[in-house]
């Protein structure tokens, strides 16, 4: 099938920028071994982009001759891949809409990777902090970044209080008592200087559940397409705002009855002109697809599921967009067009929190609560109930993640044991683990999901420390950085900046004296 000029330029920009990796493109260009220095690489990319402008057929020919994503690269090439190529100046041909942004939960590829970013490796309260902005209220949602804007959600305590009461849910423990009304806000921040541009209160309510003492009432991450912001507060409403902070539409999906009244946290996913929300709770669970422009329902699929906190992802495979949602009973893939189930697979535990990641024709799902499970599912040929079939190409029952989601980086899957600072690194295509897990020094109690860029892995613990680990055959800790805050939100990586949202402040971490763009 012929690629149009725009699609060709996009494919070259993504594959060219990450010419040695291969997990976020359908294929990797087979010229990597000939490019041993950055100057040669930059020249190659310019020539290739020029060729694409003249004839889109060039990319098609390269695509046909490329190496499959799942192929394991030679050790020498893996070492080269760790080098952090300098960022090229943005050009009209090299810009890929969305890939240079962090537009929703888990980033531009929904894997935790920022393929074009190159953030710092060291920082502290006095080093490499471009700005630090105190935040209103409390929230654990990851900030999203588009252009010069950073958006996040938060819940502010309202002055109106009520006599404290328990949630009254069977099995409830470690919960906050309901004692006051809350204001639910969306905040826009200037990426260049940290100034709060606007704060919009979208709703005010008295919660029906108190939530776990480590949770927040604004844990679902927003999404943006650069023109609109989509903010979900679960039981307190789904809202679409424009860039000026005006509400374009709102939707009430009802009240969630979460297990043990521990709170809500699944983030919406945006794909094209469709917004997808997962609604797993102790009542009737469902997944719903909405028109992003109007909020009108396109389809709704009922789910035989109990509470989960996992967010859906959308995967394009064989010309078909699949909405993949983890769950206790089944991992299910729905056709984005009409909500019909394409395939389903059992095997996860109760209390599913980690979101799936996908790449190279596989989807990786994980959980860790009453039992531990991680499965690699091959998308080619997946149809109907594939539980216990060869579509599950590998699985494991130890060291799997509970709260943090896995990270798919290049040809490697990273994940943490439960929510502790023990990091495993396996070959994504086979599950092989050459070195075994290793402990991250000083980083523990991890709710944030790991992220990656420029040959480095970033893991942030609740206590304020972030370990930076090399993506190499023998991973090593590059740095351990500490800030004076608590962190449950995952980091966002854009350009040469790293955004960390604490319980008190939002940090923009960048090398001293650097311009934002």
Structure in words:
- The protein has 517 residues and is mainly β.
- The protein contains four helices and 35 strands.
- It has helices at 5-17, 38-54, 57-64, 75-81; strands at residues 27-28, 67-68, 129-134, 144-146, 149-165, 178-190, 196-205, 223-224, 228-232, 238-242, 247-251, 269-271, 274-279, 285-291, 297-303, 313-317, 320-325, 331-335, 341-345, 357-359, 362-368, 372-378, 384-385, 392-396, 407-409, 412-416, 422-427, 438-439, 451-453, 456-460, 465-470, 477-482, 492-494, 497-501, 505-509.
- Strands 16-17-18-19-23 form a five-stranded mixed sheet, with no helix packed on it. The chain has a four-stranded antiparallel sheet with strand order 3-35-34-33, with no helix packed on it. Strands 4-5-6-7 form a four-stranded antiparallel sheet, with no helix packed on it.
- A hairpin with a 5-residue loop joins strand 14 (285-291) and strand 15 (297-303).
- The two termini are 36 Å apart.
- The model is unreliable at 1-96 and 513-517 (pLDDT under 50).
């Amino acid at each position: 099938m012929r690629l149009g000029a725009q699609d060709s330029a996009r494919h070259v920009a993504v594959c060219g920028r990450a010419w040695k990796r291969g997990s976020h493109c359908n294929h990797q260009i087979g010229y990597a071994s000939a490019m041993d220095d950055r100057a040669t690489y930059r020249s190659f990319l310019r020539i290739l982009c020029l060729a694409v402008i003249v004839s889109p057929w060039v990319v098609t020919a390269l695509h046909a001759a490329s190496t499959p994503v799942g192929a394991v690269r030679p050790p020498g090439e893996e070492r080269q891949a760790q080098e952090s190529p300098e960022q090229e100046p943005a050009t009209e041909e090299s810009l890929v809409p969305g890939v240079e942004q962090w537009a929703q939960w888990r980033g531009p590829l929904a894997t935790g990777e920022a393929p074009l970013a190159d953030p710092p490796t060291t920082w502290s309260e006095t080093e490499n902090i471009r700005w630090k902005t105190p935040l209103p209220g409390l929230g654990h949602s990851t900030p999203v970044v588009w252009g010069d804007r950073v958006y996040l959600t938060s819940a502010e305590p309202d002055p109106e209080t009520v006599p404290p009461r328990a949630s009254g849910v069977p099995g409830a423990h470690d919960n906050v008592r309901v004692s006051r009304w809350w204001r639910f806000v969306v905040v826009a921040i200037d990426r260049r200087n940290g100034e709060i541009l606007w704060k919009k209160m979208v709703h005010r309510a008295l919660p029906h559940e108190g939530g776990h003492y480590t949770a927040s009432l604004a844990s679902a991450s927003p999404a943006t397409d650069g023109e609109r912001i989509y903010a979900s507060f679960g039981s307190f409403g789904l809202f679409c705002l424009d860039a000026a902070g005006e509400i374009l539409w709102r939707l009430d999906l009802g009240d969630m009855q979460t297990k043990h009244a521990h709170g809500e946290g699944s983030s919406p996913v945006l794909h094209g002109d469709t917004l997808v929300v997962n609604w797993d709770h102790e009542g009737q669970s469902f997944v719903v697809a909405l028109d992003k422009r109007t909020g009108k329902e396109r389809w709704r699929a009922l789910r035989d599921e109990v509470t989960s906190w996992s967010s859906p992802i959308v995967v394009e495979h064989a010309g078909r967009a699949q909405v993949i949602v983890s769950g206790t009973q089944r991992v299910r893939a729905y056709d984005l067009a009409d909500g019909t189930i394409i395939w389903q697979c059992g095997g996860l535990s109760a209390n599913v929190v980690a979101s799936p990641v996908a790449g190279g024709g596989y989807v990786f799902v994980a959980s860790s609560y009453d039992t531990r499970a991680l499965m690699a599912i091959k998308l080619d040929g997946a149809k109907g109930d594939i539980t216990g079939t060869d579509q599950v190409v590998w699985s494991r029952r130890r060291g799997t993640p509970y709260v943090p989601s896995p990270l798919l980086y290049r040809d490697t899957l990273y994940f943490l044991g439960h929510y502790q600072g023990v990091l495993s690194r396996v070959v994504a295509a086979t599950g092989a683990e050459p070195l075994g897990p290793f402990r991250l020094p000083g980083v523990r109690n991890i709710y944030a999901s790991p992220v990656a860029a420029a040959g480095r892995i970033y893991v942030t613990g609740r206590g304020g420390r972030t370990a930076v680990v090399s993506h190499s055959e023998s991973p090593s800790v590059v740095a351990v950085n500490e800030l004076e805050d608590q962190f449950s939100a995952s980091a966002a990586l854009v350009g040469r900046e790293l955004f960390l949202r604490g319980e008190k402040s939002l940090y923009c971490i960048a090398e001293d004296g650097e311009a934002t763009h």
